Amino acid sequence: MSHTESAESVDVTEALSAAAADAGQASLNPRQQALFDAVRRDGFLTVDELAARFDVTPQTIRRDINFLAERKWVRRYHGGVGLPGGAENDAYDARQTQLADEKRRIAVRLAEQIPDHASIFINLGTTTEAVARALSRHRGLRVITNNLHVAAMMSGYADAEVIITGGVVRARDQGVTGEATLDFIRQFKVDFGIVGISAIDADGTLRDFDYREVRVAEAIIEHSRTVFLAADHSKFGRPALVRLGHLSQVDALFTDRPVPEAMAQVIADAGTLVHVAD
Question: What's the predicted TM-score (pTM) here?
Fold first, then answer.
């Protein structure tokens, strides 16, 4: 990680810690404090799920969100609330610990759908790394990845053949991107493309923070016979800058909670199967 990236990560962490301290000292009622803590932990929550969690009306939750947003501790989004910002993803080390159990359950459910001796792409992300761990008992896998964590992990699996793409290695997360990565991926057609994502809009648009990652994910989707998307509940409605594609390009979505009701018709129209790892 560069000095600049390290400083930015420290700045974000310090800002959230300061906000948490301020919130604890402010005149927050217990529900508002719990709401703030939940957003810090999960990243994004819908108004409806918060209303159900705290057994209050959506209007009450919106007032709580407005109170916190006015102090810049959270950010309002259509239908929900998230952390301030949205131009860049959380630091890799932070994402490794966020919703770790949810990612593990998603990974186990997805791995059940992958047969032995399959060929697969696996892209960048902590959720796809959890999938790689869940595939440890599979036999004869042929894996193509631009994720050096995945490559190191799966190279020790029984009968597995692991191929690393060319490209430029990012220090912050050991991801490989660039034109060489795209050229390499386009040589193949695999059985399954396993991709992670940073955000899913209410209309089914898939989004991420880095256009270089997006281009790699687009190539993986194009060159996979079946596309599996692994995304925990915090990704729904979360803001991210770069459009990747649409749920209609995904054969199956693996997540840890039922999808938001507002998206049910979008998913049905997309023809995407949903597997909930409950």
Answer: 0.70
